[in-house]
Queue: 3 jobs
Job 1
Amino acid sequence: MTRFFLFHGVAVNDLSEMKVFSGNSNRPLAQAIAEYCGLPLGDATVSSFPDGETMVKINENIRGRDVYIVQSTCPPTNQHIMELLILIDAARRASATRITAVIPFFGYARQDRKDQPRVPITAKLIANLLTTAGADRVLTMDLHAQQIQGFFDVPVDHLYAAPVLYKHLKEMNLPDLVVVSPDVGGMKMAYSYAQMLRAELAIVAKRRVSGEEVEALYVVGEVEGKNVLLVDDMTETAGTLTAAARILKKQGAKRILAGVSHTILNEKAVERLQKSDIDELITTNSVPPREVPNFKLTALNVAGLLGEGILRVHNAESVSSLFEINNAEKL
């Protein structure tokens, strides 16, 4: 007879049918997700041979189990993608009933179209590799381009970090708030945050000088004397954010915050943030957070959001209901 448990208001099938495993990209997050689900993190060895080849061994029985493999494809990106693919293949060959790739941060998402001649659509290639390896479904968060869901021939559950950021921002209780998109492409995301926070909306028009250099041209909207929240799905060099903050400050903005789902900071980004007009960068732990000396960076925990998503997938519950604004208090 099937047993049920109650976790966070959701009836959950027998947890013995579930297994959560992790690669090496973000084991602390995977551990927290497993704890949220009421499970120990699965026992798997993920290491490398002397020549650099990835070696995987699952050290427990998963025959007939519902398996979730947590792995962000953050730097070193290619290494972490290979770990994920090999873990999926190992689980398939060990007779798991269903394999879900839980990818808090989906790399290669910016290569989602042919924007010049003779270039690949690498996001589609990664989708093909995941399904060929044996993934039955994908659970991910804040894709750089939502159409990437259509690259998969298996179900995709697309989560949003917005409820977690909303809860934190609501606790900050910022008056006279304006949500700003640092470029045209982020307008939909900025509009969603403005609706949630009941704030005004503005946009910064920019011109990209190179892959690492961005020039902010002008601001559409009123920011003088206002607190500003810059929102974006990811930042790597922090060029777009810092350029936007610079022109917003010139336009009279008071306090400038940045809310970013995925923060993958290189050395150039650290240097830029330290010299920037941004007072605080609020992000998530979808990738391991990096400390920035003499700069305030707050990493919010999305283990509850991802764990709740896993429980609902396992129990065939609605995932979209996670993003009703009333549920933000629960996450």
Job 2
Amino acid sequence: MRVTMIGTGYVGLVSGACFADFGHEVVCVDKDRSKIEKLEAGEIPIYEPGLEALVAENVKAGRLSFSLDLAASTPNADAVFIAVGTPSRRGDGFADLSYVYKAAEEIASVMNGYTVVVTKSTVPVGTGTEVEEIIRKTRPDAEFSVVSNPEFLREGAAINDFKHPDRVIVGAEDERAQKVMRELYRPLYLNETPIVFTNRSTSELIKYAANAFLATKITFINEMADICEKVGANVQEVARGIGLDGRIGSKFLHAGPGYGGSCFPKDTLALVRTAQVHESPTRIVEAVVEINAARKKKMAERIINACGGDVSGKTIAVLGLTFKPNTDDMRDAPSLDIIPALQAVGAKVRAFDPAGMKEAQDLLENVEYAEGPYQTLDGADAVAIITEWDEFRALDMDRVKALLNAPIMIDLRNIYRPAEMAEAGIAYHSIGRA
């Protein structure tokens, strides 16, 4: 089938490359000339394991291309995906749908023949109806359907998630649109992937409900970690004990500094605002948003307390800046709260991240960036692990101790065992393990 993907950000580029790998003809369109030129030169603008090779393979095969010209890319498309950003709107927390609406207007002006317009971007309930109204107003004569097809891609594992998903959700109001979507995802039928067809509003809400639930699990185990520290329990064992219950499950029960990234912060907030507008407030999700925001700010206090209550003039080594490993995404990363809070009380910060330092430089001021984990530690007064990259999981503790001015480690991801750290002579502070 012929597919046009509007937006070459994380969702658009990964989805476009994977659809091309399924055998479809895909054109990824973007208004950013420099981004398109880089993609045509084989440069990938985001960090995602395996994506560079996947893009190159499908470009070489002639199934994937990039363009600035929506008019030239859309008329013959069977499906046009809207995969543009929907950031939180400043001031009120609602999803900013201006890019989605603009894309709908432009699609309407250039499409020719029956076209399925698919919202891949995360959008509030009712957006599909608004997109349909925009297209109908612009092109009363057009033959089209609007479908909701939310993405569930984890950064760092996005290609596998697209090709081997837990499920595919499709919100379509007519059989003709369903037929097109079935054909697009036909390779997944061979793997017996559950493909759930529902109406648009339900599909749109499924995305928000899923992310809100996962954010709630993270926030729940973080609160359990706080209790563990007070009563002498171990949050990792608590998580294992409850996670073995099939009704609960073990995923997203890892205590830490709070959730961040491109999805959970904005999606939970957007769901709260949508619920308030419809006079059906989500008290649990509201609490999750408040607790998570406060938790990230409190993590700096843990580091300060581990250093004796005063970090003025001290150098704190920070390992990991991105919101999670295997991505360069800095959006709402805990480090963006922790580092400025340390600097505000006089600390100097030296940091290393395997993929996120370029992004971090635009967001953090007065941070010294190192070339590797051990260079980060050299002469520092303490080390804080904020992101659990694999290369931080097996540090040479003798070398760590020799490099630090004081053998203090604050592990906000619980990647080491307290007993081993004590044996190594490291003053070790972790989350939820008394």
Job 3
Amino acid sequence: MDQVDIRRLSDQATAVLLNKNGTQSSTSGGWMMISTILIEAWDLYAIAFVLLFISDAFHPSAWETGLIGAAVQAGAVAGAFLGGYIADKLGRKKVFIGTMVLFIILALAQGFVQNVAQLIIVRFLLGIPLGSDIANGYAYIMESMSKGQREIMGSRWQFMFGLGEVISLVVIVILYLTGMNHDLLWRLALSLGALPAVFLLIGRMNLPETPLSLLQRGKFVEAKAVSQKLFGDSLDMLPNQDVKIEPPKVSDFLTVIWADPIKRRTAIFGWVSNVLQGLEFAAWGFYIPVIFAVAGIGDPQHNMVGNYLATALVFCLATVSGYIAPLMLPKIGHRGVSMAGFGMAFIALIIGGYAISNQYHYLLIAAAALLMWGHYWDASNGMTLSSMIAPPRFKGTASGFAYMFVKAAVFLGIFVFPKVSAALGPANTTYAVSIISLLGVLSAYFILPEMYGYVETEAGGEAAGMAAAE
């Protein structure tokens, strides 16, 4: 067969798979991929909880403090695009096994660093497998689950984020209450991220490659077998032999996305939303324990239990919000979820700035809870939308490219927030961050077409738009 015939059969099989109902196996694989967020959340928020103790140990400057928190995000920027590209070339399974092994090694290494420079370097390297795994995981979800269900699973990442943050907080509070030396505490807290990664690695060992990834690489025999397992369809239109398919060029990715107005508008919103929600979280949500401490909730030198309990309350509510957000998609769609989420965050930040100015502790806690409730809505679907619209041959690349915007924004927010807060004060900084959330509301309203139920086609255009509207 020539390349035209091969591509025609591959596209035909792709169309069948994208409209199939999944099986229990495909659902299990989706949960296994989205569970990666637990590990990232552990690492991201464990460092926020113990940053005060790291400062006592190493006495970093304000810029070094920002880098300690943000280095993993910089690594994830590189890892996201690199991992997505490699996953499109080599397949999903090789990447999601390799990234977990690297994460386990580097998470343990954090416990043995001897100075600020070593900690920053290790955390940068740690971000590479984290970013790679998220990009690859979203591609896996979009290729292994059924229409509608893959959107809901992809939008569960904030629920998993909240769960990981609450678990890390509970563990750190238990360690803190034991009276453990603070230098040992922060080392152990960061290293413990390797434990859930080990369980996730074991659970992933038996997951199959996705049939769509196999199709795009010409592995028709294995694709037919995996499709039967995940979707109950052996793709009889394909020959019982492997073929050689010319690999796509990375440069074609943006060309394909930009050529169709539905894909283009959705991609733009996905990237913009990822930047805005990343800044929204990094410039306030990440520093909630520090903001509470500055406002007088908990004493960093003597007793942080009150601070931790207030933070735990905020993230318990946020976890509930993260669970509810995907359930709202069939009711109000992606556009409605984004607008509501950014809107709640905007209101919460205005209230938060007022509460900080007037030392209203309970109002500040309520504002933080409302912020994270809204944030877990507005951050739920940027990655889902960006991955959903991409053709399978670019699915990993598209996921990785979109995740770069999240991680770049989080890096920037975590890195500069200490300096901005020192210059403007916590209250004025909070008011400034509210502008970010307001931009999110406007972006959802003016840019995003309603995409719930969308089924990707290479041609896109009116047919895709009609599918999304149904």
